[in-house]
Design goal:
The complex is a heterodimer.
Chain A: H1 17-41, H2 70-123
Chain B: H1 2-40, H2 56-66, H3 77-95, E1 104-106, E2 109-111, H4 121-142, H5 146-168, H6 171-177, H7 182-188, H8 199-212, H9 224-227, H10 237-262, H11 273-294, H12 300-327
Antiparallel strand pairs in B: 1-2
Helix pairs in contact in B: 1-10, 1-11, 2-10, 3-4, 3-10, 4-5, 5-8, 5-12, 6-12, 8-10, 8-12, 10-11
The chains are: A mainly alpha, B mainly alpha.
C-alpha cells in the first residue's frame, strides 16, 4: 500500500485511516446503542441479596482484591521481554530479502540469544507452575 | 463534492454491511456451535424456537436485553461497566484489516472489499488483540469477586503467553509476502496458498488462535467447573452479552486471519471470491467447534508449558529455517 497523502486522507474511496475511523465509530455507536437499549428495557430491582458477589451460595468474606501468585507476574515480565524482541524480528522480516545472508546471520544470532534466554528461565524454573518443580 | 458524497454513502453502506454481517454471523455461529456440539454429544440442541431452533439467536438477544444489568457491591463501577465493551470493540476492530473479496467496480470506481488496507495491518491486529486482554483482566478484577479475579489473571497470563507464538508464527508469512498488509499477503498467494509451504506456522497459529479466543481446550479463564464462569461470573444482561459477542466475533476474526494468511484468502477457482472466503472461514469455525467437542481442557501448567516450551521455540526455529530456505 502506498503512503497516504494529505489529499487522500478524507477520501471515502481509499481503504485508509478515514474508513477505519468510521468503522470504529460505527462499532462504538452499536455497542452504545445495545447498552442503552438494555438500560432502557432491562429489569431494575435492587436488593441486598442480589448485589452480593456470587460465591457458590456462601456469604463472601473479605475483599476480592487479593494478592496473586508470583508466577503470573513472572509471565508478564517474560512476555514484555520476548514481545519487545519480537518487534526487532518483525522489522527484519519485511526487508530480509534486501539484507540477504548478512541480515540472516545477524538475525539468527539474535534468535539464538533469545533461545538461550528462554532456556535460562526454563532451567531456573521460571516456567514451572507446579510447586514440586519450583526450586526451594 | 458530489463524488465525495456518493463515495461516503457507499462507504457507510459497506461498513454497515460488514458490521451487520459480523453480528449476524456471530449470532448464527452460536446456533451452529450449539447444534453441531449437540450432535457430537448425541443430543438435539436448541429445537424449540422456530424450525430447527433457527430463531434461538433472536430469542437470546431479546432475553439479554431485557435482563437486569446487575453490578455487584464493592465493584469498581466505571471499569466494571467499560470492560465488556473493550472486549467487543477490539474484536470488531480486528476484522477491519481483513480483506474478504476482490475489488468490486461500481460506476468506474473500484470498491475495495476491505474496511481498511493499513500498511501495518498485521501489527494492528496484534495491537488490538493485546488491548483485548485489558477487557478480560480488568473485568475480572473490577467485579470484586474471587472467581472473577482468578479468571481475569488466568486470562491475562494465557493471552499474553500465546500472543508471542501467535505473532512469531506469522513472521515467515511476512517474509514470504514482504508486507504487513493483509491485502498484499492475499495477493502473494495467487498461485498457491501459504499453508503448503508453512504447515508448521499454520499449526502454531491455529493452536495460538484457539488459546487467544479462550476456547476449549484452552478455556481456563472461564473453566465452569472450577471458576463458575471466570472473569464474567458477575456479569449479566447485555454486558455479559457483549463478552459473548466479543468471543464469537473473535472466533470469526481468527478464522478470517487463518483464511487470509494461510489458505489463500478469497482466491479460489470457479466460485466468486467472497463465496470462497466464506467457505474457508466457515470451515475453520466448524473445525474449532469440532475440537471443542473432542478435546478435554488442559491443566494450567500444561497450558503454559505448551505455549512457552513448545510453540515459542518452534516458531523461532521456523523463522530461521524459512529465512535460510528463501535465501537459497
Amino acid at each position: 500500500m502506498e503512503p497516504i497523502t494529505d489529499g487522500a486522507m478524507l477520501s471515502p474511496w481509499e481503504p485508509g485511516v478515514f474508513s477505519l475511523v468510521l468503522f470504529g465509530l460505527l462499532v462504538l455507536a452499536f455497542i452504545g446503542f445495545q447498552l442503552f437499549i438494555a438500560h432502557w428495557v432491562g429489569e431494575r430491582k435492587e436488593s441486598r441479596e442480589k448485589s452480593r458477589v456470587y460465591e457458590s451460595g456462601v456469604i463472601p468474606t473479605g475483599t476480592a482484591r487479593l494478592q496473586f501468585p508470583v508466577p503470573f507476574y513472572m509471565v508478564a515480565i517474560f512476555f514484555l521481554l520476548f514481545d519487545v524482541e519480537g518487534v526487532f524480528i518483525f522489522a527484519w522480516a519485511v526487508v530480509f530479502r534486501d539484507l540477504g545472508w548478512t541480515g540472516w546471520f545477524q538475525m539468527v544470532f539474535f534468535i539464538i540469544v533469545l533461545l538461550v534466554g528462554l532456556a535460562y528461565i526454563w532451567v531456573k524454573g521460571g516456567l514451572d507452575w507446579r510447586e514440586s518443580h519450583r526450586p526451594k | 463534492m458530489l463524488t465525495w458524497m456518493a463515495g461516503f454513502f457507499l462507504l457507510m453502506t459497506k461498513l454497515g454491511l460488514v458490521l451487520g454481517f459480523l453480528l449476524f454471523m456471530a449470532a448464527y455461529l452460536v446456533w451452529v456451535e450449539r447444534k453441531f456440539l449437540a450432535r457430537l454429544q448425541i443430543r438435539y440442541g436448541p429445537n424449540r424456537a422456530g424450525k430447527y431452533g433457527l430463531l434461538q439467536p433472536l430469542a437470546d438477544v431479546v432475553k439479554m436485553l431485557t435482563k437486569e444489568d446487575t453490578i455487584p457491591e464493592g465493584a469498581d463501577r466505571p471499569i466494571f461497566m467499560v470492560a465488556p465493551a473493550v472486549v467487543a470493540f477490539t474484536a470488531f476492530m480486528m476484522f477491519a484489516v481483513i480483506p474478504f473479496g476482490r475489488d468490486l467496480t461500481l460506476w468506474g470506481k473500484p470498491i475495495p472489499l476491505v474496511v481498511t488496507d493499513l500498511n501495518i495491518g498485521l501489527l494492528f491486529v496484534f495491537a488490538m488483540s493485546s488491548l483485548g486482554v485489558y477487557g478480560v483482566a480488568l473485568g475480572g478484577w473490577a467485579s470484586n469477586s474471587k472467581y472473577g479475579l482468578l479468571g481475569g489473571i488466568r486470562g491475562a497470563a494465557q493471552m499474553i503467553s500465546y500472543e508471542l507464538s501467535l505473532g512469531l508464527s506469522l513472521v515467515p508469512i511476512i517474509m514470504l509476502a514482504g508486507s504487513f498488509s493483509l491485502v498484499d499477503i492475499v495477493e502473494a498467494q495467487a498461485s498457491y496458498p501459504f499453508i503448503l509451504v508453512q504447515p508448521l506456522a499454520f499449526l502454531i497459529f491455529l493452536i495460538s488462535a484457539m488459546a487467544e479466543t479462550k476456547r476449549i481446550p484452552f478455556d481456563l479463564p472461564e473453566a465452569e467447573n472450577e471458576l463458575i464462569a471466570g472473569y464474567h461470573t458477575e456479569y449479566s444482561g447485555m454486558r455479559f452479552g457483549l463478552f459473548f459477542l466479543g468471543e464469537y466475533v473473535h472466533m470469526q476474526v481468527f478464522a478470517g486471519l487463518l483464511t487470509v494468511l494461510f489458505l489463500g484468502g478469497w482466491h479460489g477457482p470457479v466460485l466468486p471470491p467472497m463465496v470462497w472466503f466464506f467457505i474457508k472461514v466457515a470451515g475453520i469455525a466448524l473445525l474449532m467447534i469440532w475440537v471443542r467437542g473432542t478435546l478435554p481442557r488442559l491443566r494450567y501448567d500444561q497450558l503454559m508449558a505448551l505455549g512457552w516450551k513448545v510453540l515459542l521455540p518452534l516458531s523461532l526455529l521456523n523463522i530461521m529455517v524459512t529465512g535460510a530456505i528463501v535465501l537459497i
